[in-house]
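Writing this down once: the sequence line spells out the residues, with the fold written below as integer tokens. I am pasting one below:
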Amino acid sequence: MKKLVKGKKRKTKKYWIVSLSIFAILVLIGNFTIIGYFLQRNYRYSNYNATFTYAEEKLKGIPYTGRDNSFRSFLRDNPNVKDKTLYRTFTVDIWRFWEWREMIIRTDRFLLPYISTEEIMKNRAQEHLPDF
């Protein structure tokens, strides 16, 4: 009976080692190869009523670095905007392991406050702006 228990423990341990190794390989492939680049989503940002929007589109050459400059220009050109906060319009999905590298390197992208499309539409309606 003891041999049977030891055999099950070895199989369980081997199963976990193999599973974690496969997961680690997938994380590395997803974060450090061109495959992960194509799996990443396009990140979108907005102010409270979508009078300013910005979308990072990697495959179209619209980079992360232009976001802050564009928003500063918008605020300079529109000083009467009541909410001067930049929001992310995407959720942080920790299960997207192929984006973990981005979450570490570009932490500020994920630390921005979140605003939903519904909330943006509500804000637009309050200011009598048309739907977008």
Remarks:
- The longest helix spans residues 2-32.
- Residues 41-126 form one domain.
- The chain has a mean pLDDT of 87.
